[in-house]
Design brief:
5 helices
Amino acid sequence: MAKYDLSSRSAKGHRTQIREALGFRPATRADEERLTGWLADEVCPVELVEDRLCEALLVQCRSDRIEPPGRIERIVAAARARADRALVRVRTVSPRTARPVRACSSCEPERMGRPL
């Protein structure tokens, strides 16, 4: 197996035969985008370990009968970034909400009837 050239025409033909026999298909860019969104929305909020994110992605590919993309690390990185941006959007206070908070924070605690 060490002498088997995975980039040869024969290897590509063998991969095609294996995919067809097992009912898998190659991943497309649309699949990668969908997997990135799924990972960001469903997995990244509850899992921080990169190896586990990669494993979750591989399990999802297997479930969808898609040959795992060769860009797994890139998909995981994009999903983590997307999840981080979503978290920042959720945690950001709108200007309308911030006005009463700022007004309240400028009040002296004694005037509000509560000691420091």
